[in-house]
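Dear U.,

For the methods section draft, I wanted the exact inputs and outputs in one place so we can describe them consistently. I've listed the two proteins in the order they'll appear in the manuscript figures. Please don't edit the token lines directly; just add comments below if something needs changing.

First protein:
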Amino acid sequence: GMAQALGPDTPFTAIAGSEIFSLEMSRTEALTQAFRRSIGVRIKEETEIIEGEVVEIQIDRPATGTGTKVGKLTLKTTEMETIYDLGAKMIEALSKEKVQAGDVITIDKATGKISKLGRSFTRARDYDAMGAQTKFVQCPDGELQKRREVVHTVSLHEIDVINSRTQGFLALFSGDTGEIKPEVREQINAKVAEWREEGKAEVIPGVLFIDEVHMLDIESFSFLNRALESDMAPVLIMATNRGITRYLSTPGRHLGTPKPHLNPPHVHVALRIRGTAHRSPHGLPLDLLDRLLIIATAPYGDKETRQILKIRCEEEDVEMTEDAYAVLTRIGLETSLRYAMQLITAASLVARKRK
């Protein structure tokens, strides 16, 4: 929900406190990678493109079938028409995209990438039947060759991985990034700072969400304290269900172990910080706790639980009566919301069978 509210351009990374403990990677490296995944860089660059409607494609194939293919491509806009000579690679790219006369295409001059935008409105009556995916667009106007600003949004971690080794981009897909040298990160930070000064790039601090933060040890907390002081640090959100004890008067229901006469409701209980003998609220060191804004969350009430169950029923395409909603809401409040939601499909199948 939080990631959706922030939008697609804001980096959002969610990890659990226990994820950083690994034999292959140190804890500080895992946290550094999580931090840098949460920092985005919006890079702007101008590219030259050729955009027009395909009038004709002529491909000359050698009679022997072994020589290189050559051809000509005729493109037009509303104001001009030009013929381009084609090499073997461009012919292959056109064949791959299944480009034919009447298509509106763009060609990136730097990379040779061909993108099909759709078919021209003037060719709408060429065929009696067309697929649902066929898109009709206007014939481009103005010059064939244009300059267009392209914006790429990448995270600092992706730049780190690509520059950390030969063919580093393959590690992005496999996930086997390993430990990245600090020198590589320093060079990338310097380059990003240079791009910012030149106006080529913009740094987007994202959000790093750490669940079960009480699982981190004192070394990890010390690292977080220092990392938060960076000028490019993302917004850090920590979540924990330890350190606050609530006593509920409902018969047979207790959250936490302390007895009601020993601890009044909503009391902060000091937990041992992992890796030390010291105790602190929520199991976090006091110097880090002083820098945080604590937001307490309350359990869902009757109305909220009912509304969540209604949304879940709509998603699962299940119709329920008001009595069924009342029973499910009671089950959700007495046990857990997850248990109540898992009963929806099962109850629906049983009801269908009885009919």
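Second protein (the one for the lower panel):
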Amino acid sequence: MKTIATYDSAAGTFTLEKNIWRGTFPIADLPKWLVFYRHQMQRYPAQAGNYALDVEALEMLAKQLEDWERRAR
């Protein structure tokens, strides 16, 4: 199961997609979702691998946003 995180700059949101599930959230909430999924990894060790995919996708999106912001300066 691959997790994909995408950014919509026009809407100021990001979308997290995994299989048939999809959620769209304000980009300002990205750090909160990273904390949530990291917490889930600790809380549910048997599912940590699944949550790790979510964390990886969100971290990759956060890095892309930082890179875009750095280049815009």
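Candidate sentences for the figure legend, describing the second protein: Strands lie at 3-8, 13-18, 21-26. The chain has one domain: 3-72.

Thanks,
Y.
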